[in-house]
Amino acid sequence: MRTSSSSTTPVAAPKGPEARLVELIDGGLVEAVMVALVDAQGRLKGKVFDAGVLRERLVRGIVSSEVCGYLLGTDLGMTPADGGVWSWASGFGDVDLAWELGRARVLPWLPGTALVWARPMQAGDRPHALSPVTVLEEQVTRLAGAGLVPMVGLETEFVLVEGSERDAERSGWRPRPATVGNLDYALDLRGNVVAVLGELRRVLAEAGMPVEALKLEGAPGQVEVTFPYGPVAQACEQHLLFKHAARVVAERHGMSALFMAAPFTGTGSGLHLHLSLHRMHDDGSDGAVFAPDGEGELLSETGRQAVAGLLDVLPVTGPLWAPTVNSYRRLARDHGFAPRRATWGWDNRSCAVRVVGHGSGRHLEVRVPGADANPYLAVAAALAGVRHGIEGGLVPPERARGDSYQEAKAWPLPHDLASAVKEFETDRTVAELFGVHLVEHLASLSRFELDHHAPLVSAAEVARGFAQS
């Protein structure tokens, strides 16, 4: 471990938000520092700095760096977008990253490593408009203008499989789930799965991100993790760190953590958004906006408007909450615990928007995003829908009182990425909520995903056509 680097630098240690990071480096607790941003697909991207080198920068007041700007404009496979903001014609230039040193943190799952969040910037020292973080902040700011503060709790599912990515490649991309059968709510866990979940829970708690609950789900190898309620930016940040930790911990135990929406036929992994709105009063008290107005009511009038806005916006914002071709496999069948229509109801898991909670804890569970969603964009879509409903004073349709898969009059959610992109880029409400420039940018990323899959022949096609065509 590094003992101290202070003797190599004649400059005094800084006293600002970077001071704590310098202390950790000087104390030998940090040997490497990840400077990370959120890319277009909702992944951590960036550079790993030697701690001593980064310390030298900090004491000299250097609190920024650069990365190729295409990180804000790639598909899942890191295909560079030859058009728009970044292209071969423009030379694929850099964007500046402003380090947010006040939010630096040690990563317990990677001993000796700290992470510093970095914000992409554009001309005029403004947060970059195409950064997912900025997209979400814009929606939060719009709600704040109406005196409303959103809170969110993220509930995500992922699948543990045996072996590494290389093992999966050798198997023809047919990895084996780490458990067999339906172990939903099972408490008699065994073997490496216990070790993975135990270590994951421990390192997240050490990082100041304790999980609310952790359980096995209904599909083989499937795990569900729920985090407590909090500010939306914090919830999304925690989600990305959680995914990073899950992958590292799983690999340490000879497994891989898959965050695909549909890693296997018949298996769907979601990213459910538990969402509420609050109006903070002058005395510091919290006014829960969705709490019912009267006895026998499900929601307040504002809550009903929020539901109506969500049902209006979710069907036309598919690329924000279902960004890949695989995303729509999760939505492909009835009674798969993933919604297929824009419906709402009380404690009804067949609905796109499920109303749950009691009294001041009444909130909305938005069940449409898959585990592969960028949390910043998925939450932004939900908040935009809520804002649309409240600003327009919208009235929701009659709530579903049974199997909402049978609600033939309800607006269907997009059934594939191609139809989702078409709805997204042509809908007037979407353009008003997010701006034409952002809509064009995100639509282009979805087309890269479609272009990648278009010429590929799947094993299922070969199996079906081998002797029959």
TrEMBL record:
InterPro entries: Gln_synth/guanido_kin_cat_dom, Gln_synth_cat_dom. The keyword Ligase applies. GO terms for molecular function: glutamine synthetase activity. The keyword Cytoplasm does not apply. Keywords: Ligase. Pfam families: Gln-synt_C. Residues 132-469 form the GS catalytic domain. Belongs to the glutamine synthetase family. This is Glutamate--ammonia ligase. It comes from Kitasatospora phosalacinea.
